[in-house]
Design a protein that fits this description.
The complex is a heterodimer. By secondary structure, chain A is of the alpha/beta class. Chain A has one domain: Thiamin diphosphate (ThDP)-binding fold, Pyr/PP domains (Rossmann fold, 3-Layer(aba) Sandwich). Chain A contains twelve helices and ten strands. Chain A has an eight-stranded mixed beta sheet, sandwiched between helices. In chain A, helix 2 packs across helix 8 and helix 4 runs parallel beside helix 6. By secondary structure, chain B is an alpha/beta fold. Chain B has two domains: 245 residues, 3-Layer(aba) Sandwich (Rossmann fold), CATH 3.40.50.970; 144 residues, 3-Layer(aba) Sandwich (Rossmann fold), CATH 3.40.50. Helix content of chain B is 42%, strand content 20%. In chain B, helix 2 links the parallel strand 2 and strand 3. The radius of gyration of chain B is 21 Å and the shape is globular. Classes of the chains: A alpha/beta, B alpha/beta.
């Protein structure tokens, strides 16, 4: 059946209202979007790394999830999802349960690119039938906007503050999706919130209903960390894609496929200028920062095009 | 019918696991516990169990796997030592606080700094406040027996706490001893099925585990956990009673060896008790009234019972195979001395930290300690309370 946003939006929510995430936050949009791709009759266990999402959606005694949910620590969402999935397999094998369950883990970029990468890598290598979703907001937002290995170069974060001699973060963003793809798992993809959410929905369905480990990297802007007006969320996502800062692609059984190529690739300034974390790049004398950022984005884009054939 | 065998402590525990046939094992190699998952994955490979064995990439993931599997409704086990358990530290607390009765075979080994693969108790003693029940074993037989009793204790609805079954690295884990095993069906009947009330995969009622717990609730949850540890005391004794009916082997919170008329006594944990018993036999033959208490259950700590057992003694030496760096003695000493405080008449007490990183302790060392206790009784002077035993250049270190 063809994708229809209205039909999808009419499904019962699996992350319900009343959670404590900020207005204009990408995390809840990512979770709702992914969980909507579950067939309503399928049960799920949601796994969470410690994060904004965790402290805002399961604050004792209220859970915002209609499905079972498990969280314990920052760095172990991969192993936790693997543990639940293993229990499912053995209890099914031993005839103790008969329903179908899906296992979906959510971690922020801190919990995925940094402290949780070992646990994630181990779980992917062992081949658990699970989906790991990174909602990537490019810094440790829960503790107050500290830089992570996902924070892009020049961004102003609280542990890479822009000062009189230091221009924000020195290093480029880690390419996590490529690292995950190097595990040769059945499915990995990058997406964000674009248009009618078709890209997010289709990738989520593939991730959930492909046997074995699957990974989604979802660019999920944070209004406090990125410093944009909450109503600009959709524009910022669109600009990330149109400037090729965040290309939409997927890797299915090792085959790289670009899902969207802008008709006219926009200059990176259009993405950067909408966010306070990059405002220093537009000061006189800092033109080189924009130039270097453009060169970096161009070179990554060319490499991606080559990979996607 | 018991089966007579000759086994190492590691193989004995692996066989206990095989007989139990748990749902999930998550484990990572570390000396000296490595053999346990090694033997066990052999049972998996040959279809002797249908457990899902998860060969994780670290001990942190081993405990995360066990925590998650147990929360999902499965029975999970692991085995580790030393730095491996230190790497699980965060998850030890998580598992206990989520009231998930995971079972761990801990083969005690010194903590790194510097690295050392031999036995002491610094790993489990460091985890004494993590909320795990701790059972210690003197011999291979006790390691096997304790492992079989662990699940009926931890999974009891009034308890629901994880259990670590400790044995001494290399000393029992690798030494082969005579042992009596139960039949598989006896073990399965004794241990029973894991039957949690709430779990993630319960279709009728989804469950959320691991909340953000604010000040308005956290303390109450901790008190419930503390109550569970109190409840564990009577459960430990009732499981021991059932085990005695099955095997004839009797267990309590601690073993009292020649304590009835003892004037001086040693309090010790683990395999060193065997060496101490030899010393006691010899000293008894020359008329000395000496005895031993071997602690089996350190968590929950049997405070009143221990005080009762020591109340008639004039002087005791508490043996810590762990340096606590408190500058005033090891953890077993601190708790044992605290237990004595409420007695109207207290024995004098000294502490020996010994055996660190596998340093040997001999029969003559125990004889020396009883000599020290005898002179304390005679002179009425305790002297130095916090002492070390068996170190090089003893005079310099004093």
């Amino acid at each position: 059946m063809a994708y229809n946003l209205k039909n999808e939006a009419n499904k019962p929510e699996r992350l319900v209202g009343g959670h404590r995430l900020c207005a204009g936050c990408g995390a809840a949009i990512a979770v709702r979007g992914v969980l909507r791709a579950l067939d309503p009759e399928d049960k799920a266990v949601v796994v969470n790394a410690t994060s904004c999402l965790e402290v805002s959606t399961f604050l004792y005694p209220y859970t915002a999830y209609t499905d079972s949910y498990i969280h314990s620590a920052f760095e172990n969402a991969g192993a936790t999802a693997g543990g639940v999935e293993t229990a499912y397999r053995v209890l099914k094998k031993r005839g103790k349960i008969d329903e179908n369950y899906k296992f979906i883990a959510f971690g922020g970029d801190g919990g995925t690119y940094d402290i949780g990468i070992q646990s994630l890598s181990g779980a992917l290598e062992r081949g658990h039938d699970m989906v790991y979703v990174c909602y990537d907001n490019e810094a440790y937002m829960n503790t107050g906007i500290q830089r992570s290995s996902s924070t892009p170069r020049f961004a102003d974060a609280t542990t890479t503050p822009v000062g009189s001699v230091i221009p924000g973060k020195f290093q480029n963003k880690k390419d996590l999706t490529a690292i995950v793809a190097a595990h040769d798992i059945p499915y990995a993809a990058q997406t964000t919130f674009i248009g009618n959410f078709k890209d997010l929905h289709e990738k989520s369905r593939k991730a959930i209903y492909t046997e074995g480990p699957a990974f989604l990297n979802i660019l999920s802007p944070c209004p406090r960390g990125w410093r944009y007006e909450t109503e600009d969320l959709a524009d910022i996502c669109k600009l990330a894609v149109e400037t090729c800062v965040w290309p939409l692609y997927e890797i299915e059984e090792g085959v790289w496929k670009l899902n969207y190529s802008p008709k006219k690739k926009l200059p990176v300034e259009e993405f950067l200028i909408r966010q306070g974390r990059f405002s220093h790049m537009f000061e006189p004398g800092n033109e080189w920062m924009i130039e270097e950022t453009q060169n970096y984005v161009d070179s990554k884009w060319e490499k991606l095009l080559a990979r996607c054939g | 019918m018991s089966i007579k065998e000759r086994l190492s402590g590691n193989e004995a525990v692996a066989i206990a696991m095989k007989q139990i046939n748990p749902d999930v094992m998550g484990a990572f190699p570390i000396t000296p516990s490595t053999e346990i998952p090694q033997y066990f994955s052999g049972y998996v490979a040959n279809g002797e169990v249908d457990t899902e064995f998860v060969a994780v990439e670290s001990e942190h993931s081993a405990m995360s796997t066990c925590f998650a599997a147990q929360a999902a409704g499965a029975r999970a086990v692991t085995a580790t030592s030393s730095a491996g358990m230190a790497f699980m530290w965060e998850m030890l607390y998580v598992t206990a606080s989520a009231r998930l009765p995971v079972t761990m075979a801990l083969v005690n080994r010194a903590l790194t700094g510097p690295i050392n693969i031999n036995n002491d108790h610094s790993d489990s003693m460091g985890a004494r406040d993590s909320g795990w029940i701790q059972l210690y074993s003197e011999s291979n037989q006790e390691a096997y027996d304790n492992f079989i009793m662990a699940m009926p204790i931890g999974e009891n609805k009034a308890v629901r706490l994880p259990v670590m079954v400790c044995q001494d690295g290399f000393i029992t884990s690798h030494a082969v001893e005579n042992i009596e095993l139960l039949e598989d069906n006896e073990v399965r009947h004794f241990v029973g099925e894991y039957d949690p009330d709430h779990y993630l995969l319960k279709k009728e009622n989804p469950l959320a585990v691991g909340p953000y717990d604010i000040s308005a609730y956290y303390m109450d949850h901790k008190i419930l956990q503390a109550e569970a540890m109190k409840n564990a005391k009577s459960v430990i004794l009732s499981v021991a009673k059932d085990f005695q009916k099955l095997t004839g082997r009797s267990y309590g919170f601690f073993e009292e060896y020649m304590m009835e008329d003892a004037e001086t006594a040693i309090v010790v944990i683990g395999s060193s008790a065997g060496t101490a018993k030899e010393a006691i036999k010899e000293l008894r033959s020359s008329g000395k009234r000496v005895g031993l208490i071997k602690i089996r259950v350190f968590r929950p700590f049997p405070m009143d019972e221990l005080a009762g057992a020591l109340s008639h003694v004039k002087a005791i030496a508490v043996m810590d195979k762990c340096e606590g760096f408190s500058a005033c003695g090891g953890p077993l000493f601190a708790e044992t001395r605290s237990a004595l405080y409420d007695l109207d008449v207290r024995p004098k007490s000294i502490n020996y930290v010994y055996g660190l990183g596998g340093r040997d302790i001999r029969v003559e060392d125990f004889e020396f300690i009883f000599g020290e206790l005898e002179s304390i009784v005679k002179t009425g002077l305790t002297g130095k309370i916090y002492r070390h035993l068996g170190q090089r250049e003893e005079e310099v270190l004093k």
